[in-house]
Write a structure and sequence with these properties.
Helices cover 43% and strands 12% of the residues. By secondary structure, it is of the alpha/beta class. The chain has an eight-stranded parallel β-sheet. Helix 4 runs parallel beside helix 5, helix 5 runs parallel beside helix 6 and helix 10 crosses helix 11.
Length: 293
Amino acid sequence: MTDSAVVEALPRVPGGAGTSPGFLGRALAAGRPLVCGILNVTPDSFSDGGRFAGLDRAVAHGCSLAAEGADLVDIGGESTRPGARPPTLAEELDRVVPVVEALARQISVPLSVDTSRPEVMRAAVAAGAGMINDVRALRSPGALEAAAELGVPVCLMHMQRSPETMQADPRYQDVVADVCAFLAERKRACLPAGIRPEHIVVDPGFGFGKTLSHNVALLASLDGLSSLGVPIMVGLSRKSMLGQLTGRAVGDRLPASLAAAVLAAQRGADVLRVHDVAATRDALAILAAVGAG
């Protein structure tokens, strides 16, 4: 994996200072996991639904995430909480594209678009996004082809079934082996489509079609995904599994989120997708100091 290859794949930022940094290459060179700030521009996401639904509030929060030290800002216009209603294509485009366009002009941090729709992928990359983060792992019609055509890095996430049904009695033979096999298959599907191997990231999909025991087993054995030979992104921030373990409401899960982030980093996570960027950076700084001591 080379930094220059990723830099070449990222689009020119409109009105910005040229090509965004190659964050995949930096993940290897930085000596710490990258911190991806979450920017939900939805009315119904599980943690912050509605808080950043307007353009001004969304852009202000994106700038705040960058100021706190985010290495990447991930912008999503579809809530994927259990039972969520998918937005129409027009709704998702209206939520996401203006935010990407505005942030691309105001911050130098690379932007990711959290979507499964090829139309949104194309529009967001044209507006300045440099990565596609797809909870459906490019399985929607036309998504694989769009990602290959756009030539930007992609994150392939594991999810059993769909957001509407994923928590209806999820079952696995061996959750770690099954998730790893799924992600390996999706990686193999990307290569003949024209997606470069150094542009692939994987995400085990904590909370997406998993029980508490499944999530705990995945976190405990996260380093098993290293056999895939690609960076690993992890999203544990404020998740319901942390609420089940601590009894805390969504807004009171910061300590548990930080503990989970540190555990994931210790087990090989390359990118941590979080709501609380500054606090996560602090936790990683302590981990790095102890690990280097």
